[in-house]
Amino acid sequence: MNSFDNDRPIYIQLVEKIIKSIISGEYSLGSKLPSVRELAVIYKVNPNTVQKALSEIEDTGLIYTERTNGKYVTNNEKLIKKTKDKLASEITSKYIDDMNKLGIAFNEISDYLREGK
Amino acid sequence: MLLECKHLSKSFDNKKILDDVNLKISEGKIYGLLGKNGVGKSTLLKVINNLLTIDEGEVLFEGKLIGVYSKEHISYLPERTYLDKDMKVYDVINFFDEFYKDFNKEKAYKLLKDLDLDKDKTISKMSKGMQEKLQLVLVMSRNAKLYILDEPLGGVDPATRDYILDTILSNFNEGASMIISTHLISDIERVLDEVIFIDKGKIVLTGEADEIRKNENASIDEVFRRMFKC
Question: How far is residue B68's CA from residue B214's CA, in Å, rounded to a whole number?
Fold first, then answer.
């Protein structure tokens, strides 16, 4: 959870991590997010990086700021579902792509899925 | 602007150690001063702490020439330990508490505990790594505006490095800034806002860490290695 790849901007990776936690329900619908400082300690990054990541996520609508009270996860279930579907199809097409590169045709993939469960 | 270095130059034995260094440090950011060994990192930090005279240029802290005022607000971790080896840990804490107005004794004791240091231990009986941790505790227990850490990770093992980075991150004041010098870039780069590359006494690159990663498609460590191939 706290591992970052130094090759890519840290804030972008943090955006991805937090969004995943929202989708998975770790930060649940309508709940209050930890403060910037708490998030900095949780993810072991600089508070400014957290700030930047949060404002990026806020632009997607997945979180919102309640004046002086901190940041909250959206109540918009549809938006979370949409984000989840989008991420899931990205992961899936990457997987299919990787399998194709191994010379495994699309109709053979299901065999591997069953074996690997 | 918290700190500004203007046209700093310094020579030792006709060799330029700092060569027209210009640097601006603003509030609320963590800076990495990155360079190979012997390129002027420690010299620059000593100059900022008013411990070395310069041949040319000036250093301003909140617009004032460095001196008593800047020393009250800059918490400095030097490269080498300066503690009296016969003192016990709690003696040093009392000493710092008397010496610095902004020293927070409770915080110091809490950090000692977090880092597993015994307050009754005599410094000469502590390992090098433990002494480094103690110095870090002292420096981070001040409520400073600027923290300057010269190679804070040098003598400690990689597992402790992470621990020290956490301590640094969770203990520096909001609004304060920090300059960390190191050649161990990959260990530290994830916590940096801005990087300053120094080579042969000159500042050769400054910028936002994430911006550089994006533009170069590489880690700061990688960019550094490409730049200073040796």
Answer: 41
CATH number attached to the domain at A10-75: 1.10.10.10
Q: Where are chain A's structural domains? A: 10-75, 78-116
Q: Which CATH class is domain B3-227?
A: alpha beta
How far CA A8 is from CA of A16, B7, B142, in Å, comes to: 12, 34, 34
CB contact under 8 Å between A45 and B190, yes or no, is yes
Residue B123 tokens read as 């410094």
Residue in the structure block whose two tokens are 């809490």: B110
Which regions of chain A are under pLDDT 70? 1-2, 117
pLDDT at residue B11 tops 90 = yes
pLDDT in tens, B19-70: 999 999 999 999 999 999 889 999 999 999 999 999 999 999 999 999 999 9
User: Which chain B residues are closer than 8 Å to A37 by Cβ?
Assistant: 170, 174
- Bigger pLDDT: B187 vs B60: B60
ipTM of the complex model? 0.77
Q: Where are the domains of chain B?
A: 3-227
- The answer to whether A4 faces chain B, any CB pair under 8 Å, is yes
- Distance between CA B95 and CA B108 in Å, rounded? 12
Q: Is B174 on the interface with A (CB under 8 A)?
A: yes
> How would DSSP label each residue in B16-72?
EEEEEEEEEE-TT-EEEEE--TTSSHHHHHHHHTTSS--SEEEEEETTEESSHHHHH
